[in-house]
Amino acid sequence: MTLRHLISTPHTHLVRPLARIQPIQAKPGVPSVDPARVAEDTKGVAEILPPIAVESEEHWARVVRGLGQDIDGILPLSIPAYPTEVWNSNPEPLVERGLPVVFWCLPEHDEPDFWRWSARDMLASLGIDVHLVENRRHGLALARSLALRRQLTGASLVVFGVQNFPWNAHAAGAHMGRSLGLKVVVQDLEAVRERIATISDAEALELWNERSSRYRERGVSKPWLHMALKTWIAIREVLERERAIGFGVNCFGDLIPKGHRQVPCLAQVLAREEGYVAACDGDFCCLASMAVMTHLTGRTCTMSNLYPVSYVGALGAHFGDPLSPDPSRFGPDEWPNLGRLAHCGFAGVVSPEVAGGQVDLRDWGGTYEIKRDGRGCGVDGDMPAGAVTAVELKFDGRTLLAAKGEVIETTRHTGMPHCEKSVLMRFRDLPGFVRRISREHPAIVYGDHLPELRVAAPVLGLELEEF
């Protein structure tokens, strides 16, 4: 239902690399943790390089200082004896090199090697990033996090259109580089529209013949389906030129007010099939959140507007109806932790794997103020019941909010063409999440991923707040 669907092998920069871990033995001999066993346990997630046995203090210093920039961590291996290893007597090379140090768990017992407690604390006091792996699951999450840090460092996100929402990339986009190393690139939306006009129907149909099996044409007109396909072709050219990992378009601040309807809803789901992340409204904070969650978990993210149902007045003004939950099923005492996802007439831009099957292509849903007129191509998908994690990276680029929740149902709203469908969700602590929230755009991924985020956040230089 939620595992990533990839139509083909993505470009290399769209794939989380294997974490490259260098084992270093304290001295020649049989190590207490077998690196071959570690390699087997981390297959497909990490590359455990051939161990290097330390011959002298000088050799130790030379090896550590000479490790390449593609090395994500050092795996110290002890030879059974009292813990008088070279990293205790000569930690200076570790301080200088600045690589994470990973003391692996005992594979035979899947428990931490508690003899490394003191070494961990001593090295950490010197400013070294030290990890004492608790078990195999923890180690895999750590390896993914280390590799993700390398993947995101220097990567780009492209946002199209003028920057007139709070997610103004000119003003605040550089914050994404503080911890994650991401660069936010602004591109002219008019140039994309000009490129769309040069793409033939034949080229659009060729793409559709390859990709249509996951979609149902349920109301979108052929000309606007073709327009949606051409929109993705034009956007993809920019992403490939920039070697970007994802994109967003400022629809409501640029495209829609000018009367245009080349909305990128279909482009978003097609992009995800090719390994990119994609979010609405050019929200680069949401894009960064999706990049972290997609590449950390291997699952497809979606996003939408989040509306606490307790905000009856605000929802009534926005939708013409407060979208209140059924009072016979949900008493008022439950409302503070209930919220709805809704965006552009539907639940959001929901990919087929998130919906659990095909999704419908409809005319674009509009808003309460901007009436639906048959133009555009929207994506209409349900979200099945199940546990989810909602994530928001704040504008400071350092604070990651993560809320545990569940999808209760996908609700249909009759007589509301601007909001045909929304998703009702229950959160563990929605009021707390909302008090700290950065924007109305959470990234949503199925499953409880708080344990992985507790590992990943410090590796990525983020401060995790749980709700």
Q: Can you lay out the helices and strands and say which pair or pack?
A:
Blueprint: E1 19-25, H1 35-41, E2 46-48, E3 52-53, H2 57-65, E4 73-77, H3 86-89, H4 92-97, E5 101-103, H5 117-125, E6 130-132, H6 136-152, E7 156-160, H7 169-172, H8 176-179, E8 183-187, H9 189-196, H10 201-211, E9 215-217, H11 222-242, E10 244-249, H12 251-255, H13 265-273, E11 277-280, H14 284-297, E12 302-303, E13 305-308, H15 312-319, E14 338-342, H16 352-355, E15 359-362, E16 378-380, E17 386-393, E18 399-412, E19 421-427, H17 430-436, E20 443-446, H18 450-459, E21 463-466
Parallel strand pairs: 1-2, 1-3, 1-4, 5-6, 7-8, 7-10, 9-15, 10-11, 18-21
Antiparallel strand pairs: 12-20, 13-14, 14-19, 15-16, 17-18, 17-20, 18-19
Helix pairs in contact: 6-14, 6-18, 9-11, 10-11, 11-13
What gyration radius follows from the Cα positions, in whole Å?
24 Å
Instruction: Determine the structural class based on helices, strands and strand pairing.
Output: alpha/beta
Q: How far apart lie the N and C ends?
A: 25 Å
Percent helix range: 25-40%
Number of helices: 18
**Poorly predicted ranges (pLDDT <50, ≥5 residues)?**
none
Mean pLDDT: 96
What percentage of amino acids are in beta strands?
Answer: 15-25%
Number of strands: 21
Biggest sheet architecture: 8 strands, mixed
Shape: elongated
Would you mind describing this structure in some detail?
The protein has 467 residues and is an alpha/beta fold. The chain is 34% helix and 22% strand. It is built from 18 helices and 21 strands. Strands 12, 13, 14, 17, 18, 19, 20 and 21 form an 8-stranded mixed β-sheet that branches. Strands 1, 2, 3 and 4 form a 4-stranded parallel β-sheet that branches. A 4-stranded parallel β-sheet has the order 8-7-10-11, sandwiched between helices. Helix 6 crosses helix 14 (284-297), helix 6 (136-152) packs across helix 18 (450-459) and helix 10 (201-211) packs across helix 11 (222-242). The longest helix is centred in the middle third of the chain and has 21 residues, at 222-242. The chain starts with 18 loop residues before the first strand and ends with a strand.
